[in-house]
Design brief:
alpha+beta; Aminopeptidase; nine-stranded mixed sheet; 32% strand; disordered N terminus
Length: 205
């Protein structure tokens, strides 16, 4: 997608906020560094089993800047859209959600991934943030299909996806290298025409 929405932001990622009843999502900024490192450090043992191996500098300013540069590069290219998730009350960083591998042409699809800090699990924040990202994918980017995958033993993620309107599609053998091992994943997808929970949405620059 080279024109329209993305054409408004030729040099940097947009200062766009999508606001739900309890959380909002926006593109990461340099000023988020301290909060991001803090929540990732606090949640390290909780998150590591579900993610690719962390680099040695994952919890350093250098590691954050590298991640931020990738986020902004993907926004500019239209190939990925990373968001941080914040509470509306108190502006606390609680997690992240990313639309990755955006494909155009006859496919019009992307993959979604997400993480949440351990202090904020089971509070409904990610369910709301996921719906905000789907609104962005289907309404702004005009994608047709969003795909997701979770480890076969990740019951919390499986429940989240089903609750959010995704449908299970099968098992992908040794699909992703997570925690240093190629592991089987259960695959899911949702189409723009599929029913899903409604979240009141406010958009602000």
């Amino acid at each position: 997608m080279t024109g329209g929405f993305l054409g408004l932001f030729p040099r940097r990622a947009p200062a766009l906020r999508l606001i739900g009843p309890r959380v909002h999502i926006r593109c990461p900024r340099a000023a988020d560094q301290r909060a991001w490192i803090a929540i990732r450090r606090e949640s390290k043992r909780f998150l590591e089993p579900w993610e690719p191996l962390w680099p040695r500098d994952a919890l350093t300013p250098r590691g954050f800047r590298r991640r931020l540069a990738r986020f902004h590069s993907e926004w500019r290219a239209g190939t990925g859209f990373g968001f941080f998730v914040f509470t509306n009350e108190g502006e606390r960083l609680v997690g992240g959600v990313t639309l990755a591998n955006v494909r155009r042409g006859v496919v019009q699809s992307a993959n979604v991934g997400y993480w949440i800090g351990e202090p904020f699990i089971r509070q409904g924040y990610m369910a709301e943030a996921l719906q905000l990202s789907l609104d962005f994918a289907f309404r702004k980017l005009q994608l047709h299909r969003i795909e997701a995958a979770c480890l076969t033993h990740n019951e919390a993620s499986r429940r989240l996806l089903l609750k959010s309107g995704f449908r299970g599609e099968g098992i992908a053998r040794r699909y992703l290298c997570i925690a240093g091992q190629w592991q089987d994943h259960e695959t899911f997808a949702i189409l723009s025409s599929d029913p899903r929970p409604a979240v009141p949405l406010t958009e602000r620059p």
